[in-house]
Design a protein that fits this description.
The chain has about 160 residues and is an alpha+beta fold. The chain has 2 domains: about 5-80, Beta-grasp domain (Ubiquitin-like (UB roll), Roll); about 90-155, [2Fe-2S]-binding domain (DNA polymerase, domain 1, Orthogonal Bundle). It has helices spanning about 25-30, 90-95, 105-115, 125-130, 140-155; strands at about 5-10, 15-20, 50-55, 55-60, 75. The structure holds FE2/S2 (inorganic) cluster (2 copies). One FE2/S2 (inorganic) cluster binds near residues 99, 103 and 105. This is (2Fe-2S)-binding protein. Keywords: 2Fe-2S, Iron, Iron-sulfur, Metal-binding, Oxidoreductase. It holds the Pfam family Fer2_2.
């Protein structure tokens, strides 16, 4: 078994973590760093529950090797807003009642936060298409789209 020390910044704090070279970023975050907000749904790239940002872009952490974030900036749901001051997307999810069981919510929020920084979209259908990798078994999709569109409208106001 080959091991490797990964140097990365997670939610603004530097980390040096020795991991098996086969370890996923998801397992590094949850098991080595103790950031359990990122959810493990399918662990095979099909559900989006594990979405985090690497250098500001959304990635599936279950399909990303820990070694791939060497020297890069990772943001997890713990780095988005705070209990005292929610991120506008988190507040919108609350205001729009955009979740039921919550299993998908961290990934949905991370995907939405990054989407709102991306160009080339404007409609509800665009949100559905561009967040189609984030599954919700509870079927909260209409309200999730409501939440994303409400933040976009506020940004444009
Ligand atoms: S846990 Fe990564 S896509 Fe499902
Ligand atoms: S709120 Fe339950 S899976 Fe989305």
């Amino acid at each position: 078994m080959s091991r490797h020390t990964v140097h990365t910044t997670i939610n603004g704090s530097p980390h040096a973590v020795e991991v098996d070279t086969r370890r996923s970023l998801l397992d590094l975050l949850r098991d080595d760093v103790g950031l359990t907000g990122t959810q493990k749904g399918c662990d095979q790239g099909a559900c989006g529950a594990c979405t985090v940002h690497v250098d500001g872009r959304r990635v599936l952490s279950c399909l990303t090797l820990a070694a791939q974030v060497e020297g890069r900036e990772v943001t997890t749901i713990e780095g988005v807003g705070s209990t005292d001051e929610l991120h506008p997307v988190q507040q919108a999810f609350l205001d729009c009642d955009a979740f039921q069981c919550g299993a998908c919510t961290a990934g949905q929020v991370m995907s939405a936060v990054a989407l709102l920084e991306e160009d080339g979209w404007s409609t509800r259908d665009d949100v559905r298409e561009l967040m189609s990798g984030n599954l919700c078994r509870c079927g909260a999709y209409p309200r999730i789209v409501d939440a994303v569109m409400s933040v976009r409208s506020a940004q444009e106001a």
